[in-house]
Amino acid sequence: MPTLLHIDSSVFPAGASASRDVTDAFRAAWQEQHPEGTVIHRDLSAHPVPHISADAHTAGFADPATHTPGQAAAFAERLKLIEELENADAVLIGAPMYNFSIPSTLKAWLDNVILMGRTAGAEDSKLKGTPVTVVASRGGSYAPGTPREGFEYVQNYLRAVFADALGADLEFIVPELTMAPHNPAMADLVPLYEASRERALEDAATKAKSLADRLAA
């Protein structure tokens, strides 16, 4: 049965996090299709991974036989994350926008799993073609044509990472205007927020079922 790697990075719990609500909807639909399948959930807010260190970085470019004890220990932890990603049949990532970019915990995870010559820049990379669905929630709107279009660094960055560098089959789900119910200045945008949320939840369920069926075929 297919394995789904589900990663959340929001600092807020389900019910208070738009990205978690949508990733939960995706996961629920996936498990409905494959109740006996495997889901690996990594909550980077509750259990952050180490930021990349000099030992972990340099070990990735050195012969394991030459690793110092520090390199060996750091790279072993990094390798667990890489193998977890490589062994996933599909990847689901909650990536809320914080200060125009992704949470630092998600960046730390990416720094660990991006390894030139293995996950990136290798013709035989196991990640090529792997379906990756990113839930890119944001408090406002950064869509093309909006005043803050130029501040969109989440989708642009993750597209460069997953599609361009890792060769994954990348799709986005974008719940936006999530601050509208909490910010009086955005009160007139609440209907647009509600429509965006409903569309994101429906999109998550549809994509999950379709993807689960495709991988099981």
From TrEMBL:
Coiled coil: none annotated. Gene3D superfamilies: 3.40.50.360. It catalyses: 2 a quinone + NADH + H(+) = 2 a 1,4-benzosemiquinone + NAD(+); N,N-dimethyl-1,4-phenylenediamine + anthranilate + 2 NAD(+) = 2-(4-dimethylaminophenyl)diazenylbenzoate + 2 NADH + 2 H(+). It comes from the Bacteria. Its cofactor is FMN. Residues 3-174 form the Flavodoxin-like fold domain. Keywords: Flavoprotein, FMN, NAD, Oxidoreductase. Its EC number is 1.6.5.-, 1.7.1.17. Transmembrane segments: none annotated. FMN binds at S10, S17, A18, S19, M97, Y98, N99, F100, S137, R138, G139, G140. The keyword Oxidoreductase applies. PANTHER family: FMN-DEPENDENT NADH-AZOREDUCTASE 1 (PTHR43741), FMN-DEPENDENT NADH:QUINONE OXIDOREDUCTASE (PTHR43741:SF4). Homodimer. Belongs to the azoreductase type 1 family. Also exhibits azoreductase activity. Catalyzes the reductive cleavage of the azo bond in aromatic azo compounds to the corresponding amines. This is FMN dependent NADH:quinone oxidoreductase.
